[in-house]
Design brief:
This protein has helices spanning about 20-30, 50-60, 95-105, 130-145, 155-165, 185-195, 210, 215-225, 230-240, 250-260, 265-275; strands spanning about 10-15, 35-40, 70-75, 115-120, 145-155, 175, 200, 240-245. The protein is an alpha/beta fold and about 280 residues long. It has an eight-stranded parallel beta barrel, surrounded by five helices. The chain is globular. The chain starts with 11 loop residues before the first strand and ends with a helix. About 45% of the residues are buried. The structure holds NADP nicotinamide-adenine-dinucleotide phosphate. NADP nicotinamide-adenine-dinucleotide phosphate (NAP) binds near residues 15, 203 and 249.
């Protein structure tokens, strides 16, 4: 019988840069109410095995079952890795994808994830033959049932347009750093809207310090009895961004999730959009 698929959550908990705290923070995030976890098989910035340990602790404690959690991980090219590679660098890219996926499933102690993301294209400018090989290998992983959905990260509209010409299938997700000064990644978000791709935004706080300290955000926060971070997350969701948070603080986790209950007036959404470039 096919497993019931967890729905795409409305907030993702990001596990980068948590090192030894990864297991405990993953468990706390689930305890606080997150149902989407983002990681990567890139030991340089993520401890994916630690995510698996946190999940196992949450399963044991009865907080969630595997079917309650949306698990997302990534394939990372060698240039984004350190010496701790999850594949044989001498193997073809297609084999590297298969090896990286097998290692992720082992780390996460599952036989299928919900989303598998190409961490970044091989070139900052073009969708290359290497990316095409990796994407086709990722599709094979999906067709074999090891992931439900596919995504790409750190992409421009140019990458996505080239991808659309090269392949029959576009990703279900785009995951990008979302800079307010670039219109909150307006062009990529528009491409995503037009192609029914879910846009995941990260660094919503860290990349937008000027917005967090802007008088408009302060006054919106004060009138809604909310924090500037909550205003940013609420705005993000209203313009169609599926936000990630990477907080290591349980209170911030709670506040971030509570931003789902904050409804900003439409004029505020327009004003925040036009704060940017
Ligand atoms: N695809 C990619 O290439 C890529 C790149 C970067 C990140 N990501 C993913 O995105 C996730 C999130 O990364 P991020 O850059 O958005 O966040 P982050 O840098 O991991 O964390 C946000 C920072 O803001 C601070 N903060 C203060 N108030 C906060 C609040 N209310 N809520 C949340 N943070 C608050 C946090 O401090 P406290 O800990 O004290 O709250 C932390 O220092 C990562 O963990 C990773 O999963 C993906």
């Amino acid at each position: 019988m096919p497993q019931p698929a967890p729905p795409i959550p409305d907030f993702l908990y990001g596990t980068a840069w948590k090192e030894d705290r990864t297991p405990a923070l993953t468990e706390v995030a689930l305890r606080m109410g997150f149902r989407g976890i983002d990681t990567a098989n890139q030991r340089r910035h993520y401890f994916e095995e630690g995510v698996g340990q946190g999940l196992a602790a949450a399963y044991r404690a009865g907080i969630v079952t595997r079917d309650d959690v949306f698990l997302q991980t990534k394939f990372t090219y060698q240039r984004g890795q350190d010496h701790r590679l999850p594949y044989d660098p001498a193997a073809s890219l297609a084999v590297q994808v298969a090896q990286s996926m097998a290692s992720s499933l082992e780390h996460l102690a599952t036989d299928r994830i919900d989303s598998y993301v190409l961490h970044g294209p091989a070139s900052n400018y073009d969708w290359t033959d290497a990316d095409a090989e990796v994407w086709e290998a990722m599709r094979k992983e999906r067709d074999a049932g090891r992931t439900r959905l596919l995504g790409v990260s750190n992409v421009s509209v140019g990458h996505l347009e080239q991808m659309a010409s090269a392949h029959a299938e576009l990703p279900a997700f785009v995951q990008n750093r979302c800079y307010a000064r670039l219109g909150w990644d307006r062009a990529v978000r528009q491409f995503c809207r037009e192609h029914k791709i879910v846009y995941q935004g990260f660094s919503l706080l860290t990349a937008n310090q000027e917005v967090l300290h802007h008088a408009l955000i302060a006054s919106l926060a004060a009138s809604a009895n909310a924090t500037p971070a909550q205003v940013v997350f609420s705005f993000a969701r209203r313009v169609g961004i599926l936000p990630l948070t990477g907080t290591s603080n349980a209170w911030h986790m709670k506040q971030d999730l509570a931003s789902r209950d904050l409804t900003l007036p439409q004029e505020a959404i327009q004003a925040i959009e036009s704060l940017s470039g």
